[in-house]
Every structure is written in C-alpha cells, then in structure tokens.
TrEMBL record:
This is FtsP/CotA-like multicopper oxidase with cupredoxin domain. It comes from the Bacteria. InterPro entries: Cu-oxidase-like_N, Cu-oxidase_2nd, Cu-oxidase_C, Cu-oxidase_fam, Cu_oxidase_Cu_BS, Cupredoxin, TAT_signal. Residues 73-184, 196-341, 385-491 form the Plastocyanin-like domain.
Length: 492
C-alpha cells in the first residue's frame, strides 16, 4: 500500500516523527523543502532495512572486476543523478585475501577525469597500482593491478576517486565503496558474529530533480557537509537483530568533511579494529570518533528488545565563528541508522580476550620532520583562501619529502589554523604518538588522524615496505582539491 503522496510529503517535511513508519512501505524520493530554489530530494524509504552493497569475492588468489563510474546511480532504492560505480552508490564491496591479486578495470563514463585510490591498502604506489597521479579521461578505461602482500592486515578499507581537483565532487556525488581484506584461511581471530555488515557512511545533497548540488566557495573552504547522511546509500535504515546475537559492523567514514563521533543508544561499542588493523584486545567504548577516511570495526551485542539509534553526535570542527554569522564547520547530531531488536534472546558467546594486533614495525627513528597545514587569505583561491602544506599548494611534479626505504621517521603535523584537518598518508601507515588535545592514541597503525585546530599530532612512520612516489593530504577532500596535498618519494 502506498500512502497518499500528500501525507508522505507532509510527514517528511515535518521531520522524523512518524516519517519512518509512513515511508517504510514506500519507495522513491520526494521533493520537499522550504521554497523555490532550495527544494531538495529527500528519501522516502527512510527506515527500510539496511542493504549490503553487492560483494565481489576473490577466488583462487585473484579478484577481477570492472568498475564503471557514471552519473545516474540508484540511491535509496531509486534513480537519481548521483554518481555511482556500476550503477550504485556505494559501489560493490571488493573482498580479497592477503596475498591475492586485485585487478580493476576502471571505466570513466563521467564528464570529468577520474582515477582510483585504494584507501589504506599497503600496496605499491607505482605504475598501475595505487598511483594517485594517474588520470583516466572521460570515455576511457584503465587496468589497475594491485598485489596485496601475504602479510597484509585483514580488515576494512575502502576505495574512492583521487584525481586532484575533482575528488570532493566525485566522492560527494557517491563514488565510494568498501574494500575488505580477509585473513589467510584459518588465520583470523575467532569472532563469534552472526552478522558481518559494512556501514559505509557518506553525505550528499540533491536538488528536487535529483541532481547534485554545487558546493559554494564557502562550503569548499569549510569542507562541505551534505544535508543527507546515508549508510550504504540509504537514509536512516534499520538494522534487525535478535537480542544477544552478536554483529560486526565495519563503519567507514566516507564523508567529504564530516567528523563522526559515533555511539549506539543503550549500548557500548566494542571496538576490535581501527583503520583496517586489529586492536590488541576488544575495547569497550561509549563513542568511536571517525574523521573522514577512518574506519572502525565494532562488535555490537544487542541487549533487550527495542529501537536503538546509531548516532553521530554534534561536532565542532573548529572555530570560524564570526565569519558569515555562524560556524558552518559545526554540525548537529545525525541519526545514521537504527538497531531494531526483536525476538527471543540468544546467549552471546564470549569474545576472544586478545586480537591479532600488528607488532609495531620499523626501527629506531632516523629522521624527524615538521609538516604544517595552513589556511590563509589569498587574493584568488577558494573563497579568498589558500590551502597549503608548508606554504605550498599541490604540485604533482615536485618532490616535497624524500625518504629512504627501510627507515623509520617521526613526523609532527602542525595545524596553526582554526579548523581541525584530518591528515592522511597513502601506502605507509603510522602510529600516533601523541596529539595536542591529549586524546589517548589508538595504539595501532592507522592512516588518518584528526589534527586538532591550533594543535599538532606526532606520528611514527615505518617506511619498511614499498618504494615509489605518493601523497599525503588533508582528508577534507575540498581542501585536498584546493591544494592541501603534497608528495612523498620513498626511494628504494
Ligand atoms: Cu581517502 Cu588520499 O585518500
Ligand atoms: Cu583541511
């Protein structure tokens, strides 16, 4: 039964109250909004059960896939002008094992150049592997081939376009997908989970015709935040569970700029992995903080029966108060999804006391470097601002850091600016030693760290594997596109 359009529309304009139940039986999206020029496409399938993106699994040591990037993706169950891989946003989940070969034929049916980054994978940055300097023009295809080392950590990674200047638009448009590395057979920890789910969080804004909204100069300067926050392309889906039935949620922050402090109403989150590597032991937390690009694998053990929202708490990424009469780098709390528990209780089996955390690699520190993120006024630039690292905007032809393969370095990322910037380094994960806000470091290698506003983060980076050139940058993708990115050349 489809409810009358007028009541559905009203229910959605009125917000959460009642909208979920009314819309649960419907499909499609509804134009709603305060007035001419500001109307938006809003999801009508709010509250539908969470789907998993299609999974493409490796066999006999290899996974061969074709990914076509194009506009006209299905999002929230219906056709929009959002971007997708193979017609959906997110794209398929790629699932490989350590030691596998991953081959991706990327076809560009967009109207702008693109390419592909395997975020967090420890693979070669050269040639047709995880090479961020490649440019795949509209109407062309490119064959990527990634050799995943046999000792690669088993965990949650993701892929997204990385062509400088277009990254924020393309990820905001919907181009992202999960990339899971499984342990070699029989080598993983024994996690007693009955469901293993990907929760890829993205945000976007679509106008009433289903077209992507252009970001303003100020949106780009602060890092755009979409009005719709989606999980696997769905708006506030429900996640069914039996009380006690243990689930593993692989939460990926695929938002362009949003920082997600995530909590589950009425439950602790038991974190087992961060950025694709296991913690030494399950860690019980009331909140898990994910900067753009970060991932957390959490164990959820539903208690009782009821509805428990998964919430991204309000966050202030830094003070730009006084500009434009408000702080647009702040965001209110958002409901990502709702855990719905029902049925007879099952007894949750115990979790392992320890997990196969990685040993900290590398040797003694051979060099220390200072890296500085800056936002400054400029005559031209985005919204009259320049986004630089060490005073320079991105130049793919310049080597900004040269490092000897096999060494271990300590980098301090300075951020004198009034906005927090997430630092991301490709290929070579780092351990956070300390941050200026005194937060307790995760303790295992990671690939994105939020550098506090007017603060710093100190990192230990073992360059033990993979030579070649790659990049480090701010993972507020609007900042990266504006030039807050630099190159690193690791010489073998
Ligand atoms: Cu997730 Cu260089 O990016
Ligand atoms: Cu930034």
């Amino acid at each position: 039964m489809t409810p009358a359009p007028i009541s559905r529309r009203r229910a959605i304009i009125l917000g959460g109250l009642g909208a979920a139940s009314l819309a649960a039986g419907g499909t499609g999206w509804i134009a709603a909004g305060p007035g001419v020029g500001t109307s938006r496409l809003e999801p009508a399938d709010t509250g539908a059960e969470l789907h998993q993106p299609p999974v493409l699994d490796s066999r006999d040591g290899r996974l061969q896939v074709e990914l076509t990037a194009a506009a006209g993706a299905r999002l929230g169950g219906v056709d929009t002008q959002a971007l997708g891989f193979n017609g959906t946003s997110p794209g398929p989940t790629l699932r490989v094992r350590a030691g596998d070969e991953l081959e991706v034929r990327l076809t560009n049916r967009l109207d702008k150049p693109t390419n592909l980054h395997t975020h967090g994978l420890r693979v070669s940055p050269q040639a047709n592997s995880d090479n961020p300097f490649l440019r795949i023009d509209p109407g062309t295809s490119f064959d990527y081939r990634y050799r995943i080392p046999p000792d690669h950590p088993a965990g949650t990674f993701w892929y997204h376009p990385h062509h400088h200047g277009m990254v924020a638009d393309q990820v905001f448009g919907g181009l992202a997908g999960a990339l899971l590395v499984d342990p070699p057979l029989g080598n993983g920890p024994d996690l007693p989970v009955v469901e293993d789910r990907v929760l890829l969080v993205t945000d976007t804004t679509l106008d009433a015709d289903g077209h992507l909204l252009e970001a303003s100069a100020m949106d780009r300067a602060m890092g755009r935040q979409g009005e719709l926050v989606l999980v696997n392309g769905q708006h506030q889906p429900t996640i069914p569970a039996a009380p006690g039935a243990t689930q593993r949620w692989r939460i990926i922050n695929g938002c362009v700029s949003r920082v997600l402090p995530i909590r589950l109403d009425g439950h602790d989150l038991i974190q087992v992995a961060h950025d694709g590597t296991f913690l030494p032991a399950p860690a019980t937390k009331d909140r898990v903080l994910l900067a753009p690009g970060n991932r957390a694998d959490v164990i959820v053990r539903p208690t009782g029966t009821g509805r428990y929202p998964l919430i991204a708490d309000a966050v202030d990424r830094g003070g730009m108060e006084g500009m434009m009469g408000g702080n647009i780098a702040a965001s209110g709390p958002v409901t990502l999804a709702t855990l719905v528990t029902d049925g007879p209780s099952v007894t949750a089996p115990p979790l392992p006391a320890t997990l196969p955390a990685e040993k900290t690699g590398g040797g003694p520190t051979t060099a220390r470097r200072q890296i500085t993120f800056q936002m400054g006024m400029s005559g031209s630039g985005m919204g009259g601002m320049a986004f630089t690292i060490d005073g320079r905007t991105f130049d793919p032809a310049r080597d900004d850091q040269t490092v000897q393969l096999g060494t271990t370095e300590e980098w301090t990322i300075n951020n004198p600016s009034p906005l927090a910037h997430p630092f991301h380094l490709h290929v070579w994960p780092f351990t956070v030693l300390a941050t200026s806000d005194g937060a307790r470091p995760v303790g295992v290698p990671q690939d994105v760290v939020l550098v506090p506003a007017r603060g710093w983060a100190r990192l230990r980076i073992p360059f033990t594997e993979h030579d070649g050139r790659s990049v480090y940058h701010c993972h507020i993708l609007d900042h990266e596109d504006a030039g807050m990115m630099a190159t690193i050349n690791v010489r073998g």
